[in-house]
Amino acid sequence: MKSSPNLFVSPGNLLARHFVKSSWPQDGCNQSAEFQPNGQAPISSTDKQVTPQVSHDGQVLEFAPPRRLKTEEIPNIVDDFRIAARNAIEAGFDGVEIHGANGYLIDQFMKDSVNDRTDAYGGGIENRCRFAAEVITAVAGEIGAHRLGVRLSPFADYMDCHDSDPEALALRVIGLMNNLGVLYCHMIEPRMCVGAGEHGSKPVIAHGRLLPFRKAFRGTFMVNGGYDRDEGDKAVADGYADLVAYGRLFLANPDLPERFRRKAGLNKYDRSTFYTSDPVVGYTDYPFLDDQNSELATR
Ligand SMILES: Cc1cc2nc3c(=O)[nH]c(=O)nc-3n(C[C@H](O)[C@H](O)[C@H](O)COP(=O)(O)O)c2cc1C
To answer: Which domains does the chain have, with CATH numbers?
Structure first.
């Protein structure tokens, strides 16, 4: 791993595998507490249960009721993030990305649809951002802010996690990141939001909604969500972002940068294999360009 430049890992995700992700899962695999240590309830800012959700194949997913963290337990959780970051650096990664997005634990503390606490970690925006602030500060102190990125999704509503004032929320976290000199901010576009708008329709999302955050953040700004090659190039050329992260296109195209460079065709992703537990199918079995003899997969 040492030889790979710019290899980042998310301690939020590492933690998530064990307990964060399981608390408000988004992949449909962890909806029960069976993956928790000793089958314990997943931890959260709240004890409210996630609303049952319908998966792409029509299955209704019910989620284990979470356990609200006691105030005095929180410093240990913050410390777990610090240790995970240290371990990642010692394992040879160049940096870590704290996952403060998409309904994971930090998001559960930040957003007022979920956080119903009455202690110093609930209530006003400052209190709801306290957990994020403590985690970011601890990790930056451990490995250096120059090795740290933070992923945020102020407009997302995964796992019932949404906020009544997403702009103020994100700007507050960005202010903290600026003060610490965090290397990059990775923000998810509102168009990835899954919720219905008025009258049950998809909300109409104005393009450029992340611009205030891009302007406010002093480090490198990375956007994600629904980008293709041309749109990504445009976002960078327009100064809307410094970097573009690709999810589904990268999953289906292991050599995506090379395909972009050659303006080659892309494998189509297969949605039915998203979020499945098979380690290969839909994850590592998409063909490389050179393996295809110019004949593109048509899955
Ligand atoms: C199979 C799959 C698994 C994903 N897993 C996660 C995850 O664990 N955590 C997360 O925050 N986002 C996850 N995402 C969302 C991606 O990180 C990304 O935000 C999303 O796909 C939008 O980017 P795109 O339009 O480039 O695909 C996942 C997406 C896919 C397709």
So the answer is: 15-189 (3.20.20.70), 246-298 (no CATH)
